[in-house]
Amino acid sequence: MHALQYELTFPADYDMGIIRDRVARIGHLLDDWDGLGFKTYLMRERGVDGSPVNQYAPFYLWNQVEGMNSFLWGGAFQGLVNDFGRPVVQHWTGLAYEEGGAAGSAARVALRHRRPVPEGVELSEAMEEAAREAKRLAGLDGAVCAAAAVDPRHWELVHVSLWDHEAPKEAGEVFQVLHMSAPERDRLPRGRQW
């Protein structure tokens, strides 16, 4: 499992209706993408749910690296690059994935929490804890799913969880889910990924 995200941050007075319209127009294009567990079309608006910025930040969980590479190098990603410029694409190795009690519900909100893996910690223990945290989040009321991943280049952990209502009072950034393409969500491996 591979996690991927890019962020487009816009000026404070940017009309986020442009992003909503874009997702409504093209969001369905990945609904049948080979190798894609799911893509959530995430957006934050300045002043909503504590967000300091206007931002479009899709998050992906890939079952297969070939599907991810086909998306990035095969032309689909180029449309975004043509419209907004080439963003930094963050990539993490999957640690854990869990379906929540609200797995059959539509995701309305996403919660993302990033944190560094501190120097001097036992890596196996840090990764085990990250996997346990994904399971804990998935067990909370209203959880659609939760994932944990790590970037070993920058030693950063990320947890992303999806919710069928407002996000729980947990650490992290809150995003609106505008659309979810989930062609192979049922094939995402459950639990710890090693």
From TrEMBL:
Pfam families reported for this sequence: DUF4865 (PF16157)
Top-level taxonomic group: Bacteria
Annotated organism of origin: Streptomyces sp. R21
Name this polypeptide is given: DUF4865 family protein
Record-linked InterPro entries: DUF4865 (IPR032349)
